[in-house]
Amino acid sequence: MPGFFKRHRFALLVLLLMAAALYRIASSSGGVAPAGPVRSFVLEVSAALQEVLTTGVRVAKNAWNRYLFLVGLQDENARLRRVIADLHQQVTDLREEAAAGRRLKELLDLKKTFGGVLVPAVVVGHDISGWSQTIVVDRGRNDGVVEGMAVICPMGLVGQVMKSSADFSRVLLVTDHSSEIAALTQRTRARGIVEGMGDRFCRIKYLHVSEDVREGDAILSSGMDRTYPKGIFIGTVTRVNKKKFGLFQEAEIEPGVDFSRLEEVLIVVTKAEALP
Hints:
This protein is an alpha+beta fold and 276 residues long. The chain has 2 domains: 1-114; 117-270, Rod shape-determining protein MreC, domain 2 (Thrombin, subunit H, Beta Barrel), CATH 2.40.10. It has helices spanning 2-7, 9-26, 37-114, and strands spanning 117-128, 133-137, 150-153, 156-164, 169-173, 180-185, 191-196, 202-208, 218-221, 233-241, 248-255, 264-270. It is 37% helix and 30% strand.
């Protein structure tokens, strides 16, 4: 609407001047005597022009007020959007704090249950590829962490420290090809060796063919390798492979730990005799 008046400002100015002149003529009567034809015509035209101009001014005023209202509404909407974004961020932060609190509680509960000396650590790097299955944590020799120490979390066995520096350590996951863990089945106590398969699975081998191993069996660390504490949950049997020939059978295991989502761990500095 402001653009309309800007484009037609000259024509509107002429109309305004004409209306003013006609109004001046129409109102210049010396008394209340009846007006002649000319004055009547001038009065008719000037009144019509005044009505048009008055209506135009009113429309322009209303349009301007609406424009100001819309500008204010846009500013208010922008402010409200900022407030909503801030509230969303606050909710996200609170959820993250709640999740971190739950994980911390699980770590503390495990630490109380375990009985050994455990050092908490935060995962700061992942290398979970087809060639290597490792993570990096923010604890090293300055925290008493050295190569060979077991690493656990509330969901089960994570792996062992393969290299440590002053402030960081690289942990070999149980799913890595070079990882080997002395293990047993919880239900029948059948013993074997768990090794990584290079992806998100492991397998337990050297199970005697006569042993009763089934899908769903829980696999625990046996402690016989002197590296991992006894009784740590490793994973669950998902498939059993009984060979037609030979003395041993194998079983595929899905680890209890989701390594892609692992954020905190506990490093076993000194082991308890056994995990209750």
